[in-house]
Amino acid sequence: MLGLIALLLLALNTLFWVPILLALAIVKLVLPFRALRLHLDPVLLRIAEAWIAGNRGWMRLTQETVWDVEGIDDLDRGGWYLVNCNHQSWVDIFVLQHLLTGRIPLLKFFLKRQLLWVPVMGLAWWALEFPFMRRHSEQMLDRHPELRGRDQEATRKACEKFALIPTSVMNFSEGTRFTPAKQQRQQSPYRHLLRPKAGGIALTLNVMGDKFRAILDVTIVYPDGAPSFWEFLCGRMRCVRVRVQGLPVPRHLANGDYANDPAVRAAFQQWLQQIWREKDAQIDALLAGGTNDRR
């Protein structure tokens, strides 16, 4: 019953805000003037933040989660951030929005193109100009290298729009949700993580590196196991531990040519792998530790 109540509240919150969002997005589409964009974009972001505030409301009504959180007190909603996080569940997105909205600019995700067709939310993501990417396997890219260039160009265009007003660009470096089966298939050297992919973060830094105030390295741990979306709605996320660490932007890498310079590519991958080794050790410690209840 609790899951149905939470689902109903989520649906009502979404159906209230999305039509308003779409109406303003259509105005921006029909009248594509830079001056209008600069006025409408902040309004669209405020609407998205109001939707997230509504989600916070029904989460407080239906959840008894212990929030053990550190590292979010000195953030600036007026600056640009690149947010990098491990990925275990769709619930990660609700956790990130719950904790970071209002502290930094609205999180913008790179989404699989298939998600454009998700009822209601696909239109909302389109209205907010979340970039939709065509994800291709390495085998497909090896056979058709021109496809790699298309995704790079789509990323570049999205980042150019993000540079107009303060934005938080969200990146899940693993590229997919963690499962033991994927970990084994990848032969991942990490206990709790999949192998990170450096291409997306490298291109984002190359286009927007001079804008970012910092890289926010976020680690999410569910001590009782990562909940499914339905388990989350049913109030079974008893505890979540989150650590946020600000990292300096590696300017020497951001200005390099990741796509064409093997030395830059190797250095970028080493930099990200070091972050991942530290994150893996941090997850070990968080699974073993106590809580710092922030609710």
From TrEMBL:
Stored PANTHER family: 1-ACYLGLYCEROL-3-PHOSPHATE ACYLTRANSFERASE-RELATED (PTHR10983), LYSOCARDIOLIPIN ACYLTRANSFERASE 1 (PTHR10983:SF16)
Top EC class, one word: transferase
Protein name listed in UniProt: Putative acyltransferase YihG
Source organism (scientific name): Candidatus Accumulibacter appositus
GO molecular function, one term: acyltransferase activity
The keyword Amino-acid biosynthesis is assigned to this record: no
Enzyme Commission number: 2.3.-.-
Taxonomy of the source species: Bacteria, Pseudomonadati, Pseudomonadota, Betaproteobacteria, Candidatus Accumulibacter
Boundaries of every Phospholipid/glycerol acyltransferase domain copy: 81-223
Keyword presence, Transferase: yes
InterPro entries: Plipid/glycerol_acylTrfase
Signal peptide: none
Keywords in alphabetical order: Acyltransferase, Transferase
